[in-house]
Each structure stands twice: as C-alpha cells, then as structure tokens.
Automatic annotation (TrEMBL):
Residues 1-10, 23-33 have a biased composition (Polar residues). This is Uncharacterized protein. It comes from the Eukaryota. The lineage of its organism: Eukaryota, Viridiplantae, Streptophyta, Embryophyta, Tracheophyta. Residues 1-66 are annotated as: Disordered. It holds the Pfam family protein_MS5. Residues 39-60 have a biased composition (Acidic residues). NCBIfam families: A_thl_para_3677.
Length: 342
C-alpha cells in the first residue's frame, strides 16, 4: 500500500487544486503495512480507486451546487465542463462582470422600488464547457434610498451572442438578496428552476425577432405623432442613471475584448429616444418605466476613445421583462461613426 499511496500523491501533485481527501486512506494504509506486506495491485485496481475519488469529488461538487444554487462552488477539475469560480482582477476587470452585476441590481430595483448600488464584486462563477455562457455573481451593494443599508446580492445571467443578427443579448435568471447556503426544502430545487425559466409568451411579438432599423428623422416625426416615441429631456437623464448602464453595454459590445474600456468612462449621453408599443395616452416620460421598450441612444466616451479619434456611437437597446421579479433582458446593437461638429 505504500507504493499505492505514493502514486496517489503523485496524482494529487498534478492536480494541486483538488480537494485533499486521502487522510483516512493513508492512515489505514499505514496500519496494514505494519502488519504485513500487501500483494501488489494491478493498474485496474488503481484506476478503480481513482475513479472512486473522482466520484467523491463529484458528489461534493454537486452538493455545493445544490445548496448554493450555483453561487458558492469551490474549484473542481471538470474534464467535461461545469461551474468554475473566478476572481476579479479589479473592480472593472473583467468589464462584462461589472456590467452584469449592475444589470442584476437594476432588475431588482425596477421590481422592488429600491436603489441598490454596486460597491464590490466578491466573485463570479462561470459554466465552463457549456452553451450558452452563464455567470453566477455575488456582490455587495448599498440601498441609497434606505440610509445606505448594505446587503449581499446574487445575480445569475445568461449570455446569448447572436452573430447572425449582428447584436448581443443577455438575460438575468436570478436577481436577489443573497440566500443562505444549506440543504434546500424538497421542492426548493424545482422552485429555483421555475424561477429561472423565462415566460416568453408574456412578451409581445413586437419586442421579438430582429432589431428594428435606426430611426430616420422622417420616421421619428411620423411615429412621434402616434405617441409611440418619446425623446428624453435632460431632467429625465438625471433621474434615470441606469440609461448610462445601457450605453456602457453598447460600448462594451462595440469594443468587445478590449481590456481598457473603464479608462474611457464615464460616457456622455447626447440623445435618448424611447419607443414602446403603447400609444401616448399616459405622460410620455412614463415610457421609461415600461417593462418592454426600445431605446435609441447616441453617446460619446468622455475621456478619449479606444480608436484614438472622437467617435459618436449609436446604440439600440431592446429591454424586455416577463413579469418575474428576477428577470430582465437586454438586446444590444451598436454602430460607431465619425463625430459630428457639435
């Protein structure tokens, strides 16, 4: 058994981040070795014990996934894919994790009437080897409408790149205050699965399919008469800072893969037009509170531009919500053009 222990130790050395679960086995091996020399074990016996070890790890991995809904999982080697923890390099890196964290908070604020603001990202977990990519993010926030009350927050998002249509899509599946880890009730897993599933039938077909074209001046004038469009005033921008988040998503989509985008923030919004299916019976500014809407946003980077020249960006962001408290979806399309002389 001494030889076998050495072989297992060597296997562990090749996988330094595996959990160490051999203390009991090593003690038993020492006791047996003191009594007599065991018969040599062939490769099949060794593989069987290693397979059993992998099975133990799989059981522990699954327990952590089940008891945290995927938000608190240690590192395990996944030859065929699974949830893998990651660390933030800084508050903005990777940039998409910063955006996804703020989107989860934005979703919660829309449903709950709170004003949670991001203060720190603890960690994020990705589903390595699976499509579509999913992100489980744990973060700290404060509610500025409630004496800056701190909280720990969890959001799970799924990313849907759509290169055939030329735009980017992301949906939240969970947006909630942190739920303590531990064994779930018998129906809890089913409840979480149901909570994560989107009710696509609750969203009007007007907000599905390919994104619309960018508005021409004539189209905007004609549609405004019907009450479907509203051009935001400066006062609207002051009360709805989340519009900057939508612009940041577009900036990220255009420069996807660029590592230095945070250095060009904040963005400067030049114009926002919001479109809804509903006519203008209600005050126009209430379109901002619609569950489903299309935003036409023009903006610039305020601290230079990754291109090295001054650029105007035009973005269309289609926001959809199916009525479930943890759900919001953004579909984003962006263009860049030479800056106007304004």
């Amino acid at each position: 058994m001494a030889e076998m222990s050495c072989q297992i130790s060597s296997y562990e050395d090749e996988q330094p981040r595996r959990k160490q679960k051999l203390e009991t086995t090593s003690c038993s091996a020492s006791a047996v070795s003191a009594k007599s020399d065991p018969a040599p074990e062939d490769d099949d016996d060794l593989l069987s014990e290693l397979d059993e070890l992998a099975s133990d790890e799989e059981e522990e991995y699954q327990r952590q996934v089940d008891e945290s809904d995927g938000f608190d999982v240690d590192y395990f080697p996944h030859p065929h894919g699974g949830l893998v923890p990651n660390k933030m390099k800084n508050e903005y890196s990777p940039f998409y994790t910063y955006l996804y964290s703020k989107l989860g908070l934005h979703c919660y604020n829309l449903h709950k009437g709170t004003n949670l603001e991001l203060t720190r990202i603890h960690k994020y977990i990705t589903n390595k080897g699976y499509y579509p990519p999913a992100y489980y993010i744990t973060l700290d926030a404060v509610d500025t409408r409630n004496n800056n009350t701190p909280c720990t927050f969890q959001t799970c998002l799924v990313e849907y790149p759509t290169p055939e249509w030329g735009y980017f899509s992301v949906k939240t599946e969970l947006s909630r205050l942190k739920v303590p880890n531990g064994p779930r009730a018998a129906t809890s897993d089913d409840d979480v699965c149901i909570e994560r599933q989107w009710r696509d039938e609750a969203i009007d077909d007007f907000y599905k399919g390919k994104m619309p074209n960018w508005l021409t001046k004539d189209e905007l004038a004609a549609a405004t008469d019907k009450g479907q469009y509203y051009e935001l005033q400066e006062s609207d921008l002051l009360g709805n800072e989340w519009l900057l988040l939508y612009a940041e998503f577009a900036f990220h989509v255009w420069w996807r893969g660029h590592g230095g985008l945070p250095s060009f923030l904040p963005l400067k919004i030049k114009k926002v037009i919001v479109q809804t299916l509903e006519s203008g019976e209600d005050p126009p500014h209430l379109k901002l509170k619609s569950y489903n809407a299309i935003f036409y946003i023009s903006f610039r980077a305020s601290n230079g531009d990754p291109s090295g020249i001054t650029v105007d960006y035009h973005a269309m962001i289609r926001k959809t919500m199916d009525g479930k408290p943890g759900h919001i979806g953004l579909e984003v399309q962006c263009w860049a053009c030479k800056a106007s002389s304004e």
